[in-house]
């Protein structure tokens, strides 16, 4: 359920969330039973705004077998989130809540069994996660071990069919309550949610 007040300000908000929080949950249904796999995914957006998610998954996973037969899935990303305590507010009649950022994508998954596709998926993910680290690691550092380990996974691209995003970050709070919440987040060192709320409500 979404409310217009909690819509992202722009597509860049979605791109930023996924870049910062790339670990998603891919969910399918097999004969009425749910199956879910946590996976790191990278977002690719073309010049027309169409989104594709790049990832890899274990070849022997039952989810891989299912997706080859039934490629439609739901991918859920969770960004910054946290409990909002009424103890922070001057008005203690307010109820507690949870602020959060989330993006749900309905996707069609297409596997690419070529070795070069796997290398692209792994290299791009590692480069994304290692960016800015001192003494950054690269796939090339694995040497001969790479070939052995890479054979165990298969690359895929998930084409996004529909997007539902909710950035519930205090947009509906009264100014005095919002100021108290921001102060509470600062005092409890919840920097990620503090930054998200500040970004959403400049």
TrEMBL record:
<dbReference type="Pfam" id="PF04299">
    <property type="entry name" value="FMN_bind_2"/>
</dbReference>
<protein>
    <submittedName>
        <fullName>Transcriptional regulator</fullName>
    </submittedName>
</protein>
<dbReference type="InterPro" id="IPR012349">
    <property type="entry name" value="Split_barrel_FMN-bd"/>
</dbReference>
<dbReference type="InterPro" id="IPR007396">
    <property type="entry name" value="TR_PAI2-type"/>
</dbReference>
């Amino acid at each position: 359920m979404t409310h217009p007040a909690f819509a992202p300000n722009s597509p860049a908000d979605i791109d930023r969330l996924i870049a910062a929080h790339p670990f998603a949950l891919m969910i399918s249904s097999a004969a009425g039973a749910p199956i879910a796999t946590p996976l790191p995914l990278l977002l690719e957006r073309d010049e027309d705004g169409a989104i594709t998610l790049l990832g890899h998954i274990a070849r022997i996973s039952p989810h891989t077998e299912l997706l080859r037969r039934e490629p439609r899935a739901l991918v859920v990303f969770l960004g910054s989130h946290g409990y909002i305590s009424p103890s922070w507010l001057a008005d203690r009649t307010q109820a507690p809540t949870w602020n959060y950022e989330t993006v749900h994508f309905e996707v069609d998954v297409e596997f690419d069994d070529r070795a070069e596709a796997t290398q692209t998926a792994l290299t791009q993910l590692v480069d994304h996660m290692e960016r800015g680290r001192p003494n950054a690691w690269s796939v090339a550092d694995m040497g001969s071990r790479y070939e052995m380990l890479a054979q165990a996974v298969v690359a895929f691209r998930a084409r996004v069919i529909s997007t539902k995003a909710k950035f519930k970050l205090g947009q509906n709070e009264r100014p005095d309550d919002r100021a108290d919440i921001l102060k509470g987040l600062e005092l409890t060192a919840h920097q990620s949610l503090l930054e998200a709320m500040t970004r959403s409500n400049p």
